[in-house]
Amino acid sequence: MAFSSLQNGDLIFVEARQENLSGAINRVTQTSEHENFDHIGILEISDEGMFVLHASPKLGSVRQPFQEFYRSNLKNQQNMVVYRLRKEFGNAVPSAIDKAKTMLGKPYNSTYVLNEEQYYCSDFIERAFRSHGIFEHIPMNFKNPKTGEIDDFWKLLYKNFGIAVPQDEPGTNPNQLAASANLKRLGKLNENFIFSSDEIENHRKRMGLIRIE
Fold it and tell me: CA 65, CA 169: separation in Å to the nearest integer?
């Protein structure tokens, strides 16, 4: 997918790696043999620039410059795939971005147990669109489908937290959101694409977000 095709409100899913937290998330949530994601953010294209609003394990809930988000994921060898709300839900984008901005600054929710003071990535996106009913909560799963048992990574993680694994408690995950019938898959961002600030500005001009003298 070309950079010039991106639109305000596009959802950027980050492909999972096979190890550590990324691999653990994917092992218990993957819904497709061809797609596996461990992160998601919403794209904002405004008169201030291009940003990804997301809840990051390292950064918390942030409004990150698109270039920085893009390059950091490529550095980690994680491709990005763009999804877009179906046309009938397009009017949800402005209020979802406004809602996402009210959640900035909150820490990352490493336990994935829902609360109002911390967010994880798919929780952040579900909340942003909640008033429009785009996504829903499902029972969380921490069982490895190959064994039917709680994955060892999650056993150790929650042991360190001093709480029980929240199996079947309500939540969301990136693979679940990607499978939503309310979204359409547009394609991967070009791995070899290198863009400049001028190209971002020109894209914003094409979208009518910068007045051309």
Answer: 33
Q: How far is CA 174 from the centre of its chain?
A: 6
Cα distance between residue 210 and residue 213, in whole Å: 9
pLDDT in tens, the chain (213 residues): 777 889 999 999 999 876 556 566 766 776 655 578 999 999 999 999 999 999 999 999 999 999 999 999 988 888 999 999 999 998 999 999 999 999 999 999 999 999 999 999 999 999 999 999 999 999 999 998 888 999 999 999 999 999 999 999 999 999 999 999 999 999 998 766 555 556 666 666 666 655 443
Evaluate whether 82 touches 187 at the Cβ level (below 8 Å): yes
- Tokens found for residue 84: 């877009």
- Predicted structure pTM score: 0.86
At 23, the amino acid letter reads: G
DSSP H or E run through 97: helix 93-102
3-state secondary structure 130-172: HHHCCCCCEECCCEECCCCEECHHHHHHHHHHCCCCCCCCEEC
Q: How far apart are CA 132 and CA 142, in angstroms?
A: 28
For residues 180 and 184, what is the distance between their CA atoms, to the nearest angstrom?
Answer: 8
